[in-house]
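Batch job 17 of 40 flagged for manual review because the log was empty.
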Amino acid sequence: MTERVGVYPGTFDPITLGHIDIVRRGAHLVDRLVIGVTTNPAKEPMFSLPERLEMVRREVADIAGNIKVVEFDSLLMDFAEAQGASLILRGLRAVADFEYEYQMAGMNQQLNDKIETVFLMADVSLQPIASRLVKEIARYGGAIDKFVPPAVAADVAAHLGRNPGVARERSPR
């Protein structure tokens, strides 16, 4: 029997509770889950690629399953093929995600029709979470502990030069 390998790609800048939910549930669907941490030229990351790799490895270390975290800087389908993957795992939060992901899945199928895209809906309580919004909240001094694991909240605070767990005081409006 052939090993079922799935790839879960993303920038994970930073990794959120929503990402971790998808990893936890996706790891049950395959024999090996490869989390591909990449750089998106359209995004300006808060964390460097090595920092994001370490963060993702740390946060998924206790999740059951055969999970591997690697970096990649290529077409997703080339990366997936190199990993021996038969599926791409993608998390969905809302209709807007679906429209984008549906188009990407169609393009990826044109590139390699032997690799399927599987969509998992984020847990209802986690659907509003987006890394972009987490970073914005943190930059303006808001608390992000409802959206990311404690160690990630500390990483973000340290990156912004703040004490972990302490939201910046806001001036009255």
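Reviewer: the log was empty due to a logging misconfiguration, but the result itself is present. The first strand starts at residue 5 and ends at 10. Unflagging and moving on to job 18.
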